TrEMBL record:
Phylogenetic classification of the source organism: Bacteria, Bacillati, Actinomycetota, Actinomycetes, Micromonosporales
Matching SUPFAM superfamilies: RmlC-like cupins
Keyword Chaperone: no
Region called Disordered, residue ranges: 1-21
Keyword terms: Dioxygenase, Oxidoreductase
Residue span(s) of domain Cupin type-2: 111-177
Listed name of the protein: Cupin domain-containing protein
Cleaved signal peptide residues: none
InterPro entries (UniProt xref): Cupin_2 (IPR013096), GDO-like (IPR047183), RmlC-like_jellyroll (IPR014710), RmlC_Cupin_sf (IPR011051)
Source organism of the structure: Micromonospora zhanjiangensis
Length: 377
């Protein structure tokens, strides 16, 4: 039997505008509130309704050169199998009290699979993706469809799809996992289920079934056209197409085309071909490319983001923190923290965010420019 401990309600009386004078009668009233597990709004309004978002998450960066050796050591010491399920190492934001979360809504982890290893099949409510910064040889199998994982590929595992991974090569492989675990945990809506104990399909097709059906620009199978799906039916967005789209955008930017962000800055968003919207209901994913010497305008946005450097190098300023970053490095942008990126050698950045959640709730807001506060925009 599990016993749940309850923290007693405590009301902290404050002084200031709109606050009542501290008297024995008021203290007695507050004791009555505490006895009935009640808290008056007037003592809490500053924390509950701040003038602009105040994220508990902190701007923070993780270095790929530090993460990868630790993942390799875990590969030597930690088995993959039922119970542990995955050799995944989560980025823990130092502002979130030890929780294994990159931001209050987003999970980011380095997953590592050794030569000829298999990760067991399971499914869960949480939406997930994989992004490959280096290596190949692993297939992720989603509802029985083996999908090759190669450098630069963005791969989807929407919620409640059975999935496992198998490494058919003689070399280990590491990649970035992104999920909405913190959001699902906060909303107390999680389900998890083991799949068959048998290893996932060990096929190694060059293209998955989902790609053969859906990964053709502007073309949908007639039998499935017009049926919106909550998540994209495309299991893998291949780097060759992402790279080509970024190169074409930069060329158009040179000609002053209005459909691009500006000279030297191209960006693409992965979309659901059945709706034109985001690939999953809780996660947005993009790739940004900056030419050498390019600097972005400062941007603030409600909601949080995690970035990984795919190639190149540059400098990043988030709030009052600044870092130089290179291939594989990751950094977090908490809600409403200003972000500026400057490219040195040219840089490609993979980004995922929780923006679809706030857009669906009509709570999204952004500000682009040098206003030090950006509040009220």
């Amino acid at each position: 039997m599990t016993t749940t401990s309850h923290r007693p309600v405590r009301i902290v009386a404050t002084d200031g505008p709109g606050q009542p004078d501290r008297t024995p009668a008021l203290d007695d009233l507050y004791r009555g509130f505490e006895a009935e597990s009640l808290i008056p709004l007037w003592t809490e309004i500053g924390d509950l309704m701040p003038p602009q978002p105040r994220s508990r998450a902190l701007p923070h960066a993780w270095r790929w050169r530090d993460l990868l050796p630790l993942a390799r050591r875990a590969g030597d010491l930690v088995p993959v199998g039922r119970g542990g399920e995955r050799r995944a190492i989560a980025l823990a934001n130092p502002g979130l009290g030890g929780a294994p979360y990159a931001t209050p809504t987003l999970w980011a982890a380095i997953q590592y699979l050794g030569p000829r290893e298999d990760a067991p099949v399971h499914r869960h409510t949480q939406n997930a993706f994989r992004f490959v910064v280096e290596g190949e040889g692993v297939w992720t199998v989603v509802d029985g469809d083996p999908v090759a994982m190669r450098r630069g590929d963005f791969l989807l595992t929407p919620g409640w799809r059975f999935h496992g991974h198998h490494n058919r090569s003689d070399a280990p492989m590491a990649w970035l996992d992104g999920l909405d675990i913190p959001f699902v945990h906060l909303t107390e809506s999680a389900f998890f289920e083991f799949g068959p104990d048998a290893v996932a399909d060990r096929g190694t097709p060059a293209r998955s079934r989902s790609e053969r059906l859906w990964a053709h620009p502007g073309i949908a199978p007639v039998s499935l056209a017009g049926r919106p799906t909550s998540s994209s039916p495309i299991a893998a967005y291949r780097w060759e197409f992402t790279d080509r789209a970024l190169r074409d955008q930069l060329e158009l930017a040179d000609d002053g085309h209005p459909g691009v962000l500006g000279p030297g800055h191209a960006a693409v968003r992965f979309t659901n071909p059945t709706t034109g919207g985001d690939v999953m209901p809780t996660i947005r994913a993009e790739v940004h490319r900056l030419r050498p010497g390019t600097r972005t305008r400062t941007r603030r946005e409600v909601g949080s983001s995690v970035y990984q450097v795919f190639s190149g190098a540059g400098s990043v300023r988030v709030g009052d923190r600044e870092w130089t970053v290179e291939r594989g490095d990751l950094f977090v942008v908490p809600s409403w923290q200003p972000l500026t990126v400057a490219s040195e050698t040219g840089v490609d950045l993979f980004r995922f965010s929780d923006t679809p959640i706030f857009e669906s709730l009509h709570q999204h807001r952004q500000h682009v420019g040098d206003d030090p506060e950006g509040a009220g925009r």
